[in-house]
Design goal:
Layout (H helix, E strand, L loop, with lengths): L7 H10 L8 H4 L3 H17 L2 H19 L4 H8 L2 E6 L2 E6 H26 L6 H26 L15 H9 L7 H25 L6 H19 L5 H18 L5 H9 L11 H15 L10 H17 L2 H25 L9 H6 L1 H27 L11 H10 L4 H11 L3 H57 L1
Antiparallel strand pairs: 1-2
């Protein structure tokens, strides 16, 4: 029978003390002090790896290191290593891919898997599950895609128009990491607005990547990809809650898409949307079930017998472990296992591999005057803010939507400026858009310069605005204090 809410606090108190009347602490549960110390160190490390600012700093550091290496004597060795083919042999079948291709096509599929998980999370319990509430930042994202593309085409309509999508993307990890540097100067509601906008931006960029930057399609491999998608749908409909079958079919889907002409990283997004977002455990009964198992464990435990001989106890403990593991939905399990690897290994590796901007012997003036550089740079630095701010302003002025609570126009301007940080997706699109090395170089220079400019301008704008507002308020307070003091003096004279 399910207990009433009123009776549960007392039960929790008695459970916390344990059947022997002791308070259960971590140092009591874990036998070895060294294990306790290692767990504390692991928890401290998890706090560091879950910090978006640190993750963004690591990625930026990897990009800066790539630029330094590319303009040093180590360039040739690194360039040769990145082009080294990696081969997989299974009997007579040989599959090969360069190290750079492995990073851009396979490892980045894991990044896209994490992006897809974030999208599904937001559509299930986040901002995107309330279409009207999410409509303002989502439509602002459309403006933030259209204006940069238009600015790019103004410079490149007659020459290299295929790179129009380079300035449309916002790097959510990079941008939110920079925004977190501003602390309390940015309202939490503004960060949610920006996150929703960046997620909608990711959706649009993924659609653009799928429609405009694939290769000539191979019908047979596309058919095989569809079969893999149907297998994922079958697993989902059959309510399979183990992660391994989904990951195995996801790998098969990646192989099929890699050979189909569709960019293989999209396999990660497709896989994410089939991962179950529910638990296969009846959570309402979990507390009562755990209490029963706790009593059973106490009954089975024999203090005088070695743990290897306590078969009933270890069997019950193993059952509890499996149930607790399945409390977390597969979607969250995959996210938990991937997030640190993606943020601190895959994205820095991608940044290092793709930010190899070699300027030795290059005419910098020609790079600056290149239409690709100008279109991509101004599209990000100028087009992004214009698109986001003007669309938001229009929708609010016509009464279609209202600014979220605590979100002010100065913070909308800051969001628009920081939207120009399009590092990861922009570099990926640049590599797909251009066949010529000098065009890719121009695009990468514009992306790096545009991301740095947008980040610095965003921080400077918020800090200057905050200083001006606080200075104005302080001056007003000083005037009020002076008037109050004068009134007091007049009263004393009277």
């Amino acid at each position: 029978m399910v207990q009433s809410k009123a009776s549960r606090p007392d039960q929790k108190t008695s459970d916390a003390k344990g059947r022997r009347g002791r308070v259960v602490r971590k140092s009591v549960i874990i036998r070895e002090p060294a294990v306790v110390r290692r767990r504390d160190q692991k928890n401290a490390l998890e706090k560091v790896t879950s910090n978006g600012t640190i993750a963004a700093a690591v990625m930026v550091g990897a990009a800066l290191l790539a630029v330094i290496v590319a303009n040093s004597g180590a360039y040739e060795a690194v360039h040769h290593f990145l082009g080294t083919p990696l081969e997989l042999r299974i009997g007579p079948v040989v599959a090969g891919i360069s190290f750079e291709g492995f990073v851009n096509d396979f490892l980045m599929a894991l990044f896209f898997l994490l992006v897809g998980i974030e999208l599904k999370y937001e559509m299930t319990v986040g901002q995107l599950r309330r279409p009207r509430q999410a409509m303002l930042p989502m439509l602002a994202a459309v403006g933030g895609v259209a204006f940069p593309a238009i600015i790019y085409l103004l410079f490149n309509h007659a020459g290299t128009p295929h790179g129009w999508a380079i300035p449309i993307a916002t790097d959510i990890a990079f941008a939110l990491g920079v925004m977190s540097l501003l602390g309390d100067r940015v309202a939490p509601e503004t960060k949610v607005f920006f996150q929703t906008l960046a997620i909608a931006d990711d959706i649009l960029a993924i659609v653009v990547l799928a429609l405009f930057y694939g290769q000539t399609p191979d019908i047979a491999w596309i058919a095989a990809s569809l079969i893999a998608v149907m297998l994922l749908a079958t697993l989902s409909r059959a309510r399979v809650y183990s992660v391994k079958p989904y990951m195995a079919v996801g790998l098969l889907l990646w192989v099929c898409m890699y050979n189909s002409g569709i960019h293989a990283t999209l396999a990660g997004v497709i896989l994410a949307f089939f991962l179950p977002a529910k638990s296969d455990i009846r959570l309402s009964n979990l507390g009562d079930w755990l209490q029963e198992k706790a009593a059973m464990l106490d009954d089975d435990y024999d203090d005088g017998t070695h743990i290897l001989g306590q078969h009933d106890f270890t069997a019950s403990a193993n059952r509890v472990e499996k149930i607790i593991h399945h409390v977390t939905p597969p979607l969250q399990r995959v996210e938990r296992n991937l997030s640190t690897t993606v943020n601190f290994l895959i994205l820095p590796l991608f940044a290092f591999t793709n930010a190899q901007v070699r300027l030795v012997g290059v005419d910098l003036g020609s790079i600056v005057l290149d239409p690709v550089t100008q279109g991509a740079y101004l599209g990000a630095v100028l087009g992004k803010p214009l698109g986001i701010i003007l669309v938001t302003l229009l929708l609010v002025k016509i009464g279609f939507a209202k600014l979220p609570h605590n979100v002010t126009w100065d913070q909308i301007i800051a969001v628009g400026i920081m939207g120009g940080m399009g590092f990861t997706m922009s570099i990926l699109i640049a590599g797909l858009a251009f066949p010529q090395a000098h065009e890719i170089l121009a695009a990468k220079c514009a992306i790096l310069a545009g991301s740095i400019t947008s980040g610095v301008l965003g921080i400077v704008f918020v800090r200057v605005h905050d200083a001006v507002v606080n200075g104005t308020l302080l001056g007003s307070d000083d005037e009020d204090d002076a008037e109050s003091e004068m009134e007091d003096q007049v009263e004393d004279i009277n």
